[in-house]
Amino acid sequence: MKISNRKFFASAILISAILAGGVSFYASSSPDGLEKAAKDVGFIETAKDHSFGDFTLADYGFKGLENARLSVGFAGLIGVATTALIAMGLFRLIRKKAPNKNQ
Questions:
Q1: Where do the domains of the chain lie?
Q2: What is the chain's pLDDT, residue by residue, as a tens digit (103 residues)?
Q3: Cα 83 to chain center, whole Å?
């Protein structure tokens, strides 16, 4: 059974969106590796907020949405959409520069 590229990529994006939007809420709420290491070693007190700390998608959520489940899910969907758009743009650039096999 052969599946078209369009159906494959549409399915991949749909599955990614479901995982990012629905399953991401159940991810660990523990700090990431760098934060954990900073706490373990004892230099977390000297840490400063990043300049993008007030950004809409900072801290794995969407600022303005009070519901934590919706906030994390929406941020995940935005991440999937952004990654997919960047990848599609890069693939189109590469495809245009690749030599045509029929020539």
A1: 57-103
A2: 788 988 998 898 899 988 888 887 787 666 677 788 888 998 888 888 778 878 888 877 888 888 888 888 898 899 889 998 999 899 889 887 766 666 5
A3: 7
Closest C-alpha to 78, from 17, 26, 12: 17
Task: Report d(CA 85, CA 5) in Å as an integer.
Answer: 16
Distance CA 71, CA 81 (A): 15
DSSP of 52-92: TTTSTTGGGS-TT---HHHHHHHHHHHHHHHHHHHHHHHHH
Contacts of 74 (CB under 8 A, 6+ apart): 21, 62, 65
